[in-house]
Design goal:
Number of domains: 1
Number of strands: 6
Order of helices and strands: HEEEEEEH
Strand order of the largest sheet: 1-2-3-4-6-5
Strand content: 25-35%
Oligomer: single chain
């Protein structure tokens, strides 16, 4: 899956340390050192944005650690192995047809 340069640039304005990777027919945007709100523990994580339909979700944001200090959420994907690492994701519905930066922002709203 390819994304336009303007979408990548827009996403980098929020999360500057990113790269693309593919596994199992899915494209992932890896975001290193993603800053979360101060009340989150940890408040810096690595993340994987999967902008494709997977596991019943239009898109997913996987975190390198379960995040606490925010409202209680359903961490329904725990220790999922992707790209040789374990990841965690909240059950959070996001509409289809969004730009990458919009997807990221909506997924991060689960922590508020």
């Amino acid at each position: 899956m390819n994304f336009s340069e303007d979408q990548i640039k827009e996403l980098k304005s929020i999360a500057p340390d990113l790269s693309m990777a593919q596994e199992g027919g899915y494209t992932y945007v890896r975001i290193d050192n993603l800053q979360l709100p101060d009340y989150c523990k940890p408040n810096v994580v690595n993340a994987l944005l999967c902008p494709s339909h997977k596991d019943g979700y239009e898109s997913s944001l996987f975190y390198s650690a379960m995040v606490t200090g925010c409202p209680t959420r359903n961490w329904n994907r725990n220790g999922v192995r992707i790209l040789g690492e374990n990841w965690y994701a909240i059950s959070w519905k996001v509409n289809s047809g969004l730009r990458l930066a919009e997807m990221l922002q909506i997924h991060l709203s689960a922590l508020r």
